[in-house]
Amino acid sequence: MNLALRDIRHNIGRFLLTCVGLSLLLTIVLSMLGIYRGLIAESLTMARAPGVDLWIVETNTRGPFAEASRLPGDTREAVARVAGVTEAGSLTFQSVETETAAGKLRLYVVGSEPGRPGGPTRLVDGRPISQSRYEVVVDRSTGLGVGDRLRLGRREFQVVGVTAGQVSSGGDPVVFITLRDSQKLQFDLAPPAARRELARGGGEATSDIVNAIVARVNRDVPVAGVADGVRRWKHLAVLTQEEQETVLSRSVIERARRQIGLFTTLLLIVSTVIIALIIYTLTIDKTKEIATLKLIGAPDRTIVGLIMQQALAMGAIGFTFGVAFILAMKDGFPRRVVVEAPDVAALGAVVVVVCLVASTLGVRLALKVDPATALAG
Amino acid sequence: MTDTTAPLISFSDVKKHYGEGSARVDALRGVSFDVTAGEVVGLRGPSGSGKTTVLNIVGCILAPSQGELRLAGEPVFAGGRWLRDDLRRLRLEAIGFIFQFHNLLPFLTSTDNVALVLQLAGQSRGAARRRAQELLDYLDVGHRRDAFPSQLSGGEAQRVAIARALANRPRIILADEPTAALDSQRAQVVMDLLRRVAIDQHAAIVVVTHDDKIADRFDRVLELRDGLLV
Ligand SMILES: Nc1ncnc2c1ncn2[C@@H]1O[C@H](COP(=O)(O)OP(=O)(O)OP(=O)(O)O)[C@@H](O)[C@H]1O
Ligand SMILES: [Mg+2]
């Protein structure tokens, strides 16, 4: 006869209510983990989207995401000529604030050369940019669709295609325009003083600035060798795709990891304390029954089992509800929340440990109960 | 417990004090008595005279400060220490407790409350439930076998509690004010039952009571006053 189960069944309402409360706490833990995974996924989206092997940026920088990087526009041709490089493309990146029907919108504008690496991939609607002028491919998260108009700087752009899941490391939706349009936009948005400087220097020629060159390398050639080839130019720095991702993880993620790690730890400690208090209260409520059990000769293992099994049942049910809640809610978050099976499994293991630790308080109380209290009225 | 002629309960010169120094309370100051099989013995005395203390010592949940306790002829406490290390097992198999309030587990039905002690003693679930239902029938509460304690009347609950106390056929039954919460008619029914058990099971029964309703239902009454029998 399982006493823990019988007791739960007898007080099922109270028990489930407690489980729901606990599950909300675990939902918060899971969403913290999901937000963290989401941050990683989002910050790597931009670096992974072009599907390239090398990132060529301004010397002594680790751009273009972690640090600002500026290169002359003709660098691309030089890079494309390096032995082993099959394709190269120039890219610009800038954050722009604009106004749409729905209100203010912060966008991350990527300028790329049609037909070269770095442009929008996998459209969910519409077509890629064909004309060089005033066409834009937007991410679905902007809320815009094909045929809509979007104001960037002083120009109106026509939405011709839509992507999905393309956001900057800050969570802003990404829009793609041509390199030429983006350079115009950069000029439009530059502070007046800088703009005068550029104009005096000869206009178009000096505004031919890009932020990074991306390159694909022949599969049969070692990427490191090609990178060394590019490094001969002293004004360039080279990051392999792997290095680029590491830089992003370090700069963007490291601090978030500590922040969220600490918060998650706090939540788990709070959960432990709460579970411990619940179990302790449940045990106090049962003092008389425990004394009776001892008096009639039930072994300690029966009594410890009663408490531990209830703690574990509470943890298991709370955890299951928590997972269900987060799966139901995760798409309602304004930024991406990624629920990964290993994280869920790890939290499950932690919950088991937490329940066992939390129930020791109740178990100690139960073992101290004097059987004589059953006789005292 | 093999000696069939020895008294089932034997107290010799048992002393018990709680606390030390100025807080010391001498609850029992040298109490000796025997209860033999088939006897129903009353234990009376004013509040604080030591009745519950006697019961706790017989029930092996409280160690005397001095003296000797034998159950069925076997020394259980002597020389300042317990002579058995499985006191729980002893309680489970040899002693039945009946309380002033029924002390049934609120989350188990009548049948399961009784079956629990049988299963703890090692019986299979099926056998335990069968014996539990027999016992409930024997105590006239068979029709309430699937009810929870909160659904039982005071008298029904007390009879289920008695069924539990009898489940493992203990030869010693200890009852602390078993009728205090019952009306006089129910109290008589409980006393009838205890009498029947004493005869059927050759049990020794000790009943602590203040209750005048049942004053004349004992073979013998032990009177305690300030920790001494009078
Ligand atoms: N755990 C304890 N600690 C200290 N003193 C105690 C303890 N238990 C009982 N006493 C004292 O021992 C004496 C005997 O107590 P006991 O409970 O045996 O009396 P009783 O005859 O059962 O009384 P009542 O009729 O009120 O139940 C009392 O003076 C009581 O205050
Ligand atoms: Mg008492």
Automatic annotation (TrEMBL), chain A:
It is found in: Cell membrane. Residues 262-371 form the ABC3 transporter permease C-terminal domain. Its main location: membrane. The keyword Iron-sulfur does not apply. Pfam families: FtsX, MacB_PCD. GO terms for cellular component: plasma membrane. It is a multi-pass membrane protein. InterPro entries: ABC-4/HrtB_transporter, ABC3_permease_C, MacB_PCD. Residues 16-228 form the MacB-like periplasmic core domain. Keywords: Cell membrane, Membrane, Transmembrane, Transmembrane helix, Transport. The keyword Zinc-finger does not apply. The chain crosses the membrane at residues 12-36, 260-283, 303-329, 341-367. It comes from the Bacteria. This is ABC transporter permease. The lineage of its organism: Bacteria, Pseudomonadati, Pseudomonadota, Alphaproteobacteria, Hyphomicrobiales.
TrEMBL record, chain B:
It comes from the Bacteria. One of its GO terms (molecular function) is transmembrane transporter activity. Gene3D superfamilies: P-loop containing nucleotide triphosphate hydrolases. Residues 9-230 form the ABC transporter domain. GO terms for cellular component: membrane protein complex; plasma membrane. Keywords: ATP-binding, Cell inner membrane, Cell membrane, Membrane, Nucleotide-binding, Translocase, Transport. SMART domains: AAA. Belongs to the ABC transporter superfamily. Macrolide exporter (TC 3.A.1.122) family. This is ABC transporter. It comes from Rhodoplanes roseus. The lineage of its organism: Bacteria, Pseudomonadati, Pseudomonadota, Alphaproteobacteria, Hyphomicrobiales.
